[in-house]
Amino acid sequence: MLSKPCVVSLGIVLLACFGLVGCNQVGYYQQAIGGQVRLLAARQPIARVMADTDVDAKLRGRLQTAQRMLSFIQAELHLQPEQRYRTYVALDRSAVVYNLVATPNLSVEPQQWCYPIVGCAPYRGYFRAAAAVRASERLQDQGLTTSIGEVPAYSTLGWFDDPLLSTFIFWPDAELVALLAHEVSHSKLWVNSDVAFNEAFASFVGSQAAVLWLQRREQSELVAYQARQRAWVELRGLLLQLRARLQTIYARPLSDVAKLAQQEQAYAALRSCYQAQRVQLGGGRYDGYVAKLNNALLAALATYDNFRPAFAQLFRQAQQRWPEFYVAADKLKTLDIEARHKQLQQLAEEYVASGGNDDHAEQVQCQALAHHSLDVESSSAVNNDVGRGRHG
């Protein structure tokens, strides 16, 4: 555990780092610094937790499993956890951070916020749900669409020794090892202001870690994990169809009223398709996600998961050798963001064209989105707008 002088010193360092921001950002950074300091101060060494006779046997077992996973990640994926996840913190909530994403109305492009050290990102993180809600309400008052997501873990990119948390320690083995590999990989490769690249890279590494871990254990667990992954990939494909449809609607020469009507029709079509294929799409696992779906949540989806097939192709080209894969991924870091994303898109297309998929996921089709069934209403809306304009 950090001593009080260490906590004070850490707070001073963080305040110095963030001292370059404007006064209107002070409140946000105060809560971020305070939340991080409290988290680090609460860390308990794993050995101390394990030695406590009052500790629940299930927690003790999960902490032991997590340490084995870190050794596995180092040996098999050539990543260096070092002193990260060698401590534990029990939180009084289901998330460590609450991420706020916002989009302009009639857009699926997220608002960007810029930070010292890590660059710009399409979200703001809050250590308390109430603070995230208040910030969300302020943005909504400005006419933005918002979404708040619970985050069970995050990486400090090696700046601090991140702890294991109660928010994820009891996850199934596959999801736990995937999360640990995901977070550790951020220290291996990080590009400032390119969240899409960073998250796709880490998500791919995490998914591969889960498969490798389970391949050496109970086969039924691997089958179950791949089924969960397949359901998510299929749902993601359906959601990306919705996002593409919305982009088409927003680009048309319609009034905002007409675009809003088309938007609602597109969402209704998506939900209808989801219900019709609900068994295939997780059997209800994603009911809550679909129920709260909006443009901000769609923007977050595209940001975090768009380029994962590109890294699958890069891994294939490296003949599934991790050191060569990391070198190839690191070369992309040298490109400017436009060239980098163009290269990632090309890699993703190569992967799909060669028959690659995520755990044999199928493309789920929604005819109401893929076809032009909304065009009739769109034409009618345009005509009505024109008519109203002529008689206005």
Question: How would you characterize this protein structure?
Answer:
There is one protein chain. The chain has about 400 residues and is mainly alpha-helical. Among the domains are: about 1-40; about 220-390, no CATH class. The protein is built from 16 helices and eight strands. Strand 4 and strand 5 (about 120) form a beta hairpin. Helix 4 (about 55-75) crosses helix 6 (about 175-190). The termini are far apart. Residues about 1-25 and about 375-390 have low confidence and may be disordered.
- What portion of residues is helical? 55-70%
Helix/strand/pairing class, anyone? mainly alpha
Largest sheet: 3 strands, mixed
Number of helices: 16
Poorly predicted regions are 1-23, 376-392
Radius of gyration over all CA atoms, rounded: 23 Å
Strands of the widest sheet, in order across it, are 1-2-8
Query: Proportion of β residues?
Result: 5-15%
SSE order, as H and E? Answer: HHEHHEEEEEHEEHHHHHHHHHHH
Molecular shape? globular
Give the overall average pLDDT: 87
Task: Please report the total strand number as a whole number.
Answer: 8
Task: Note the main attributes of this structure.
disordered N terminus; 16 helices; 392 residues; globular; 8% strand; mainly alpha
In short:
It contains 16 helices and eight strands. With 392 residues, the protein is mainly α.
Task: Draw up the topology in text.
Elements: H1 4-17, H2 26-41, E1 44-45, H3 46-51, H4 57-77, E2 87-89, E3 97-104, E4 113-115, E5 119-121, E6 124-126, H5 129-141, E7 144-151, E8 164-165, H6 173-188, H7 195-215, H8 219-251, H9 256-276, H10 287-291, H11 295-305, H12 308-317, H13 322-332, H14 337-353, H15 367-370, H16 375-391
